[in-house]
Amino acid sequence: MDIVRRTRQGFSVIELVVVVGILMILAALVTTGLRGLSNASKARSTRVLMEKARSMLGELDAKTPIAGQAWASGSLAAPGKVGTEDAGRTGAAVVATRDVIELLRSMPLNRDVLAQVPQEQLMLLSGSDAPVILDGWYNPILFVGAGGLSGVNVDGTSRTIQSPDNRPFFASAGADGDFSSGNDNIYSFQN
To answer: Could you give the 3-state DSSP secondary structure of residue 77?
Structure first.
């Protein structure tokens, strides 16, 4: 009696489903890990830019004290611009960065610092040759006056964020691009 041996020619459907499922789980884990690394890298680059912006404020303050200027005290709902009637009237917290950059560029050392900012993180707005500095997620880094930034949601409550010495500072909305959510905002006075 001859025994006929059958050789297996492929995988069963169940084996294929298990392998595909394992590959999908691994792909999800890798994607999540890469996204976390990407956000950490963008946050680091934003902190470096904020450190440069903070040094520019220091240079300006050494020549023209800015702490006492009536820059911004209010909420996210009422943004204004330096030098406009609206900014003084509403007491807006967020001052247009373009106007601040023009003021910062008036100092020679600050022009050198701005020259070190990567070109892809500078954005020219129409009608001005002064750039707006972009954070790691390509959102504008905003200048906030001494009064702080109110309307930021921290742990479920709306708060005003101020620098420890109640001075102007720069702020990034972080990965979500939303200042009011406060959970991932980056401020220039943070280490």
So the answer is: coil
Q: What are phi and psi of 132, to 5 degrees?
A: -105, 135
Rounded Cα distance between 150 and 75, Å, is 4
Entry pTM: 0.69
- Report the amino acid identity of residue 115: A
d(CA 171, CA 53): 10
- How confident is the chain (191 residues) per 10-residue block, as mean pLDDT? 69 93 96 92 91 82 61 42 38 58 82 84 70 85 80 83 84 86 86 68
What pLDDT, on a 0 to 100 scale, did the predictor assign at position 78?
39
Of 93, 55, 69, nearest to 179 by C-alpha is 93
* CA proximity to 143, closest of 133, 152, 153, 151: 133
Handedness of CA 159, 59, 95, 120 (dihedral sign): negative
Q: What are phi and psi of 121, to 5 degrees?
A: -110, 20
